[in-house]
Design a protein that fits this description.
The protein is built from 16 helices and 15 strands. By secondary structure, it is α/β, with parallel strands linked by helices. The structure holds iron/sulfur cluster (2 copies).
């Protein structure tokens, strides 16, 4: 048995424990030493008997494929923390590049794929290249039986785009910063400052047509005080999934260190708003990026899965590094489109594989690792260079948040509905 497959986490207050293994949490609340030892033994034996549960990514249909496209680096907003300095370069993907990328991914397997997921992402605002997107999706549908479209957008689009998103049942992630929106996400055109009104109207219009909308909210230090009011506003709009992210200053972002929230205060604010949502009993899932269903997979697919095509036809494993001149282009940009084929650099792929948290010395032996998963690998790289170490920000949030939230979930099952998907495997003994 691999000792590392079962972790014991001490929860706040004495004698409270969580025994965590991939896809499973077992609680020992007010447990005596012998009860705790019994639970650990049981979990270790179970891990041997059942083996590791199959990861979701292993179960996907063998004839399905996914690809990300960055249609443009241009942007109609100038968010004060933008990770990509969107709009400062206007480079836009050609239709030829977009079609070649689709053909390359559809024909990549021995069996041509019959289900394709296309992710339209930035930085840059993807929906600014509306004509390119319409033509690309039409082309993808001519090659592949099922095409599901997902977009990450700033939400500042007009009625033509809105109607297309509804007609094509696009899965939409919209950035909306609540009470801080106008300060944090101004329009690029001077004098046109109010993007909040447009974004809110678009979110409500999509929800009214049953389009799945995830709202992404970026939290800066001076926005912590208004987080609960922002959540209440998001609930009132009927949003079902909220992704929260702290501002992160990187080598290429517009954010500065001063904008980053204090990690301990940030973790405290996350705990408060999750309890607030549970108390209200509303149907809202919150993804904090710091508390996931336990897993021994990598944090985000950067080690093996991610393929996003840039406007220049490069293939990147992370949207934060999308230009050849960006820091860490090696190894993050690991391939390029050549004709209708994707060619990859094997040396860079090997370096990407090494970004699993088990290769970070402190994370490898940390008892929170199945839930924290070492945090965002790119955030670790921005902080500690290459090869990455754990990020002090992520680690501070993880240690403050995870044990407290685990105990609160055990005491209040309604909180589990805010944090996990419905089929999470949680047992209290
Ligand atoms: S964060 Fe997004 S919307 Fe804002 S400037 Fe960057 S690319 Fe544009
Ligand atoms: S970042 Fe910190 S809390 Fe997270 S797995 Fe690594 S050591 Fe543990």
């Amino acid at each position: 048995m691999k000792k590392s497959n079962v972790c014991l986490i001490n929860l706040p207050q004495q004698k409270n424990y969580a025994i965590v293994s991939p896809h499973r949490i077992v609680y020992g609340l007010n447990a005596s030493e012998s009860e705790l030892n019994g639970l650990i033994k049981e979990e270790k034996e179970r891990a041997v008997k059942t083996g590791e549960p199959k990861a979701e990514s292993d179960r996907v249909h063998s004839q399905s494929a996914s690809i990300g496209l960055i249609p443009t680096f241009d942007c109609n907003l100038r968010c004060i923390y933008c990770y990509a300095r969107g709009g400062e370069t206007k480079k836009t993907m050609s239709l030829e590049t977009a079609k070649s990328a689709i053909e390359a991914i559809v024909n990549m397997r021995d069996n041509r794929c019959n289900k394709l997921d296309i992710y339209l992402v930035g930085g840059g605002e993807p929906l600014l290249s509306f004509e390119l997107i319409c033509n690309t999706i039409t082309f993808a549908k001519s090659l592949c039986k099922t095409v599901d479209v997902h977009v990450v957008t700033n939400g500042a689009f007009g009625t033509d785009v809105l109607e297309w998103l509804i007609t094509n049942k696009v899965d939409v992630r919209i950035s909306y910063d609540g009470l801080m929106h106008n300060t944090q996400r101004p329009f690029a055109i001077q004098g046109r400052l109010n993007s909040r009104k447009t974004v809110k109207e678009n979110i409500k219009a999509l929800i009214s047509k049953n389009i799945p909308v995830t709202v992404q909210c970026i939290v800066a230090d001076d926005g912590l005080f208004s987080l609960q009011q922002t959540i209440d506003e998001i609930i009132a709009m009927g949003v079902k999934i909220l992704k929260l992210e702290p501002v992160l200053a990187t080598d290429i972002s517009r954010a500065t260190k001063e904008m980053e929230p204090n990690p301990i205060k940030y973790a405290g604010a996350l705990l408060n708003i999750m309890e607030h949502v549970a108390e209200l009993g509303v149907d809202l899932k919150i993804d904090t990026g710091y508390f996931a269903e336990p897993s021994d997979e990598d944090y985000c697919g950067i080690t093996h899965n991610n393929k996003t095509i840039t406007p220049d036809g490069l293939v990147t494993a992370c949207v934060e590094v999308a230009k050849e001149t960006d820091p860490y282009a090696k190894p993050i940009i690991f391939g390029k489109l050549e004709g209708k084929r994707i060619t990859t650099n094997q040396e860079r792929l090997k370096l990407l594989e090494s970004l699993h948290y088990s290769n970070q010395a402190e994370c490898a032996k940390c008892n929170l690792r199945f839930i924290c998963q070492g945090g965002c690998p790119m955030a670790n790289i921005w902080r500690s260079r290459f090869p990455p170490k754990k990020s002090s920000f992520t680690c501070a949030v993880g240690h403050k948040l995870i044990p407290s939230l685990l105990l609160k979930i055990a005491e209040n099952p309604k909180l589990a509905n805010v944090v996990f998907n419905d089929n999470a495997n949680i047992k209290t003994c």
